[in-house]
């Protein structure tokens, strides 16, 4: 018999997780605020708990996947997690994860925070590339390694419970910048180039440019922001003016681009014309 688990939260992500564990033969107890979502899983073998406290009591391994830190707090409020292994897959901040870890620790539970790097259709799908960052109790992670690996790959980030959230949010932040750039690019081209044709070009270009991050890492590691710079800041700032004039010609607002361009100009004005854009990172640090 596979290890049992309880899952609180059956939204798009929680529901996908539940189906993956059920399909793999794990006994799963579920709870959801809107009961209909739990009932729907009963057909697939899930046991439905009437309250969060009942769900927490039902299994040694308790997993929550709720909207945000506040809703997870509300749900866990009336439950007794002592002696349990609690895993929080709700997206939150590093400090929120650390606070949840303290909450669990004070109540005699082991704790692991998780950051899901996937959309629901990737969950339980072999070869989808889905994985979850985990941080907190290494012992919990190791004791439940097989169960945790069912819905997605697993990456243990470290004992600091905030690390998974930090990595999760950092990757989402990089994605947000990418979404912004792609939105601007489609706004420029939509009247002149077939969207699908342009998408092929965008995907190829972003893939080719992605290793930019390795150059940044080398600059941060060595402290020399001019190493292997092929596109200097002075040239790029000049190029920005062309990007902005093109936006104007195409009647597209430059508002997604200008914040980054302003930082590039400030760095250049500080006398760093031999650098690329790594110096922008220094300007972002809030004192
Ligand atoms: P949904 O909006 O689909 O589901 C939200 C869940 O939280 C539902 O079960 C909902 O219950 C419950 N909920 C919300 N507020 C409360 C509350 N006050 N009390 C009790 N339950 C509450 O979100 P997802 O399932 O997509 O997301 C869940 C978590 O997974 C989020 O933290 C999200 O960031 C993360 N995640 C989601 C991804 C995605 O692509 N969907 C990707 C990676 C992470 P009810 O059914 O009653 O409304």
UniProtKB/TrEMBL annotation:
Pfam families in the record: NAD_binding_2, RedAm-like_C
UniProt domain 6-phosphogluconate dehydrogenase NADP-binding: residue ranges: 6-150
GO MF, one annotated term: NADP binding
Gene3D superfamilies per UniProt: N-(1-d-carboxylethyl)-l-norvaline Dehydrogenase, domain 2 (1.10.1040.10), NAD(P)-binding Rossmann-like Domain (3.40.50.720)
Signal peptide: none
Highest taxon, organism lineage: Bacteria
Every NADPH-dependent reductive aminase-like C-terminal domain range: 160-285
Alphabetical list of InterPro entries matching this protein: 6PGD_dom2 (IPR013328), 6PGDH_NADP-bd (IPR006115), HIBADH-related_NP60_sf (IPR051265), NAD(P)-bd_dom_sf (IPR036291), RedAm-like_C (IPR048666)
Protein known as: NAD(P)-dependent oxidoreductase
Organism: Microbispora cellulosiformans
Lineage: Bacteria, Bacillati, Actinomycetota, Actinomycetes, Streptosporangiales
């Amino acid at each position: 018999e596979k290890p049992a688990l309880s899952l609180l939260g059956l939204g798009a992500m929680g529901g996908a997780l539940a189906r993956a564990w059920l399909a793999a033969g794990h006994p799963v107890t579920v709870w959801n605020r809107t009961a209909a979502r739990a009932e729907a899983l009963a057909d697939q073998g899930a046991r439905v708990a009437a309250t969060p406290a009942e769900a927490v009591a039902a299994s040694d391994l308790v997993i929550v996947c709720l909207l945000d830190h506040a809703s997870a707090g509300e749900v866990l409020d009336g439950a007794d997690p002592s002696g349990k292994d609690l895993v929080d897959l709700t997206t939150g901040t590093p400090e929120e994860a650390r606070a949840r870890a303290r909450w669990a620790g004070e109540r005699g539970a082991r704790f692991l925070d998780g950051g899901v790097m996937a959309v629901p259709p990737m969950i339980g799908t072999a070869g989808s590339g889905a994985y979850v960052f985990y941080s907190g109790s290494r012992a919990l992670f190791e004791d439940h390694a097989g169960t945790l690996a069912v819905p997605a790959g697993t990456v243990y980030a470290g004992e600091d419970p905030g690390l998974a959230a930090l990595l999760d949010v950092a990757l989402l932040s990089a994605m947000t910048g990418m979404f912004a750039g792609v939105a601007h690019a489609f706004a420029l081209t939509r009247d002149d180039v077939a969207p699908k044709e342009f998408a092929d070009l965008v995907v190829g270009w972003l893939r080719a440019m992605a290793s930019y991050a390795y150059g940044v890492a080398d600059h941060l590691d060595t402290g020399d922001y001019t190493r292997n710079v092929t596109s200097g800041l002075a040239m790029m700032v000049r190029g920005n003016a062309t990007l902005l004039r093109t936006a104007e010609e195409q009647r597209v607002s430059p508002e997604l681009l200008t914040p980054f361009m302003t930082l590039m100009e400030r760095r250049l004005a500080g006398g760093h014309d031999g650098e690329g854009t790594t110096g922008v990172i220094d300007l972002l640090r809030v004192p």
